[in-house]
Amino acid sequence: MSEFSRRDFIKTSSLILTGVGIYPLTSFARLSKNGNPNFVEVKGQVKSAGKGIPGVSISDGKYVYRTDNKGKFEFLTNRPFVFISYPSGYQFDLLENGSVNFFRKLDFVQKTNQLLFDLQPAKNSDKNHHFLVIADPQVQTDEEADMFVSESCGDLKRRNMDLEDSNIFGIGCGDLVFDNFDLFERYNEGIKSTGIPFFQVLGNHDIDLSARSNEVSQRPYIDQFGPPYYSFNRGETHYIVLSDVFFLGNRQYYGYLDEVQLSWLKEDLANIPKVQPLVIFLHIPTFSHVVEYNPGRDINKESMVNRDALNQILEGYKVHLISGHVHWNENRVIENIFEHNTGAISGAWWSGDICYDGTPKGYGIYQSDGGAISWKYKSIGKDLDFQFRAYPKGAHPEFPNSYCINIWNWDPEWKVFWYENGIKAGEPIREIATDPMAMEIYAPNKPKKQPWITPQKNGHMFFFQPIDPEAKIKIEVIDRFGNIYSDTIV
After folding, report:
1. Which among 234, 241, 176, 470 is positioned nearest to 366, based on CA atoms?
2. CATH 2.40.110.10 fits 6-118, yes or no
3. Is 360 helix (H, G, I), strand (E, B) or coil?
4. At 104, is the secondary structure helix, strand, or coil?
């Protein structure tokens, strides 16, 4: 048989190829004949209730294929995993550790790997569903793991019960542990206790910083959770998990997406119409103001170096990017992309109940209703109406004559007012400033668990000076969805 291209091979099989790009020019027949040990043949089926599911995306992390009209697939690969992009309308199968099982590890001793993905239909329509985003549990000790399991996961479990959504899922948005890989077991214990199927994201503290290369550094995470990037569907929304922690050696890393992953992403999106909403999870934000507001930090570690490449691939889509890493909360909107940088569920590395920007330790609650995305921030141990903290006049040393408000989940569509004796008096002014509570708890001279922690200036602080110094002050905050929150300062 003469040598022919991968595209030609796909055309002669029952597979449908969704991507475009540069393909290897080694034929299936030639590889099989030579017995190349670096490649194995993959055959299998995606089915439910005994019937094959057509049109399901399946990937080896480099190329994306589609199942035929009988749900079958067949291809060659030299990659360690094969994974599906879960189609909408099906329950998530779980690994023993509580995370979603969307992949199969390949056996390269076997010439052919026979794979089966047998999916169970969702109990209810998943058009309207919720997902919870936790960032940076970052447990380093047994004591911190205990707090994560009892306090954090206890709150998640209660929220799950309140929502009563059979299609809910969770995302661990990276730094699941703090370099202590033995504590993956405790992290898994916590997420299993919530009753929520969880997907995971690779963080910079989930990699082996003593490894010799980026690929090898990811093994502790991969051994637990499988491929570090993948996609899935729920209702009308397409979800993608990216791995943007790139290990450089010498215990250093950058926020970066390599070419293999960018090409895979392009292929994954080739089957997704641009009218379909996208939600993308990653650990390091593509951009954060933390460096601009707090000079001295490394922008290459706090944001993605090659974010322009990602933005080009996402052009034309309506995208929500959801990240962690920074241990603060920030929302920014740039053209078609809304980026949510989620406050840490560990606060400032378990050194206090708030992050170093004053955001309470907590997590994001999101809802997709027919693809329309809405969200709130949930503080651990607080009611869902707790969306800001107001300080009396003089609480902030840099604004001694002003009242101060920290609205951690603020974005430009939010509205803020103050009232004096029941009469609307004005709108507070947003300033780049630190949070008074963070200044008190994390002052440089204060003893704390992690000595490097200091209060950080952020973009969600508001100030005003009352017209009547003796007036009773009420703060009113309205989020972009019309929800009203208020507090009175006596």
Report:
1. 234
2. no
3. strand
4. strand
